[in-house]
Amino acid sequence: MSRFGCVLLLLLPWCIFAASPTGPTRVACPPGGLQIRSAGVPGRQTLSSQETSYINQRTSRVLPNAWASYLSNAERATPAGPFLTDTFNRDLSSHIPRIGIATSGGGYRAALFGAGVLSSIDARNKTAVKLGTAGLLQSATYIAGLSGGSWLLTSLVQADFPTLPDLIFAPNANPNGGNNQFGGWLTTVDLTAPGDANTTLLFLEGLLEEVLPKFEAGFPITITDPWSRTLSRHFVNGTTLSNILTPGTHGAGVLYSDFPQLSTFKSFEQPFPIVIADSVPPNPDTKEIIPGNVVPLNSEIWEFNAFEVGSYDPGLASFIPTSLLGSTPGNNCVIGFDQAGYIAGISSNLFDEFNISGVAIPPLSTFVELIEGFVGPEPGFHLDTAVVPNPFKGVHPSTFSNSKQDFVNLVDGGLDGEVLPLQPLLVQARHIDTIFAIDASADTEENFTNGSDIVNAAKRAALFGNAYPFPPVPSSPDIFVKEGLNRRPTFFGCDVPYDEAPLIIYIANGGPPAGQVAVTNTSTEQTTYSDVEVQQFLNQAFDIGTQGIPGTHWGTCLACGVTDRTRARLGLSRTAECALCMEQYCWNGH
Ligand SMILES: *[C@@H]1O[C@H](CO)[C@@H](O)[C@H](O)[C@H]1NC(C)=O
Ligand SMILES: *[C@@H]1O[C@H](CO)[C@@H](O)[C@H](O)[C@H]1NC(C)=O
Ligand SMILES: *[C@@H]1O[C@H](CO)[C@@H](O)[C@H](O)[C@H]1NC(C)=O
Ligand SMILES: *[C@@H]1O[C@H](CO)[C@@H](O)[C@H](O)[C@H]1NC(C)=O
Ligand SMILES: *[C@@H]1O[C@H](CO)[C@@H](O)[C@H](O)[C@H]1NC(C)=O
Ligand SMILES: *[C@@H]1O[C@H](CO)[C@@H](O)[C@H](O)[C@H]1NC(C)=O
Ligand SMILES: *[C@@H]1O[C@H](CO)[C@@H](O)[C@H](O)[C@H]1NC(C)=O
Hints:
The chain is of the alpha/beta class. It has one domain (3-25, 33-37, 67-585): Cytosolic phospholipase A2 catalytic domain. Helices cover 34% and strands 11% of the residues. It has 19 helices and 14 strands. The strands form 2 sheets. Strands 2, 3, 4, 5, 6, 7, 8, 10, 11, 12, 13 and 14 form a 12-stranded mixed β-sheet that branches. A two-stranded antiparallel ribbon has the order 1-9. Helix 9 (197-216) crosses helix 10 (224-235). It starts with a helix and ends in a 5-residue tail after the last helix. Residues 1-21 have low confidence and may be disordered. Bound molecules: 2-acetamido-2-deoxy-beta-D-glucopyranose (NAG) (7 copies). One 2-acetamido-2-deoxy-beta-D-glucopyranose binds next to loops. The site of one 2-acetamido-2-deoxy-beta-D-glucopyranose has 5 residues, from loops. InterPro entries: Acyl_Trfase/lysoPLipase (IPR016035), LysoPLipase_cat_dom (IPR002642). Keywords: Glycoprotein, Hydrolase, Lipid degradation, Lipid metabolism, Signal.
């Protein structure tokens, strides 16, 4: 991919210092220095011009057909026959529903759960076609991922949007494919301990050797760096089973800012992808933290997309180009910092969980010892976080928590207690009317989801005034569990006026469908899966996603749910079938 970057850069005078394909490089800045885009104040925020253009093109060129085929398939699959046929379908292109998909954190469990549910709405899945759920993935405008969900999303995007089974198993990968091909998730090889003690040590040292050039270029090395190099082997192009333990390129040089060169991105076939992480303020302990978490709930959430990095949270509301991540204000520009593996690594950096008492414990301590063995001590740096040069130093000193810092500490997007990446989908400038939320965080003793992510998301949204409109949801996970809202799809916001807050269609990993033995409630710490386990996991997640139970009419009801806001906007009432669906799936607010 770096060759694309170079072609682009060659057009500009500052290209002469083009990046090495494997790590960040200092370059001369574009004329005028690092440009910081202000996103504006809530209610009047703006998107980048590139994102606006992508969304406009996707909406006009791709989505009309995608929606027509999704809805006609949903109707075909419905025993009751057509249920949306009225003026709504006749001129779809003038009123495309705006759907955002959110896929949660929770390690491999969340990545696999998200993948199984995405398969269940993928137009290419024949079973989903029969059930009438196929095609919602292709009809979505946005998709956001966090932590395990960022592994799923990053790998899917950079592999050019294959089907989920092809992504995960890569049945046709050539053993010598290099960065031009994706070799699958390779779940049979453990993420951090791929062999016996000696093999593992050699492997970990190899990961550090791969990031030495970054250190030599003058950037601090923290746990996120070697972590990213192992994630790269599983979730970025350039690795197969036969070379995974051998040092090498393994996806280095695949950049977020190069995604626009992918063929499915150029043709606007992908929902616009966004990955998030939490920033840690300088004195986190002095702020309100939800018990059991490590990041204050009001800390800025940063987002990474193919064009920009920054935050829409009102205290910062600023962005820089993704290609210049690593740069600081003025004329200190860097390229090659936005490695796809590194961004997935930031979003899933949960290692400060292993340093709550201020004393690092394994696996953090093991990595830290290795890092210090390689590069010596790095005083002043939090090695348990991703340490990123602060592009916004000096911006909004009274409201941006890290305004005075030279470096920002970024960590796993779920460490504030909101393990679902809803925040980027709530940004009003994105006009998302319906969120399809896939939640697989391990909340209960049996590693099932209890709804705490939605509860916390609502709490967080409430901290920002009118910035993030949010529908009413239960006030505690107890209610979720008691009412079984984590055991079946639930719609939140059915009775809220369409222009006041999005409708949330919530699908949780709350328990297996009736009659099945649970396989999707694996521990977050499980970092190896056999192919058989993966297939069983995907199948069960698919069943949870499709409510594969005869008589539920899920295909019908999903289509009713995702079009409900648009119908309301058009002044159309619910059809009889849809009214029944809403009765069945809407949270009744008790
Ligand atoms: C990754 O490999 C796939 C083929 O497996 C290819 O289509 C895609 O363009 C590659 N992505 C990058 C970023 O090189
Ligand atoms: C691991 O390395 C040590 C020291 O080099 C050696 O003594 C030991 O036999 C090795 N163990 C294995 C299982 O290869
Ligand atoms: C652990 O946390 C303490 C207190 O926040 C910090 O000073 C220290 O650098 C952290 N340790 C590592 C290895 O990052
Ligand atoms: C729900 O999950 C959260 C977060 O994992 C946990 O703190 C809480 O105790 C759980 N509550 C219930 C009722 O299961
Ligand atoms: C998964 O759930 C089942 C109950 O359905 C339970 O017996 C099992 O211990 C759980 N597994 C894990 C790893 O929590
Ligand atoms: C998940 O499963 C693991 C392994 O069975 C267990 O140790 C852990 O306590 C479970 N619960 C959570 C919330 O991780
Ligand atoms: C469709 O989903 C089923 C159930 O998980 C799976 O077995 C099959 O491989 C999927 N096919 C495609 C093309 O996604």
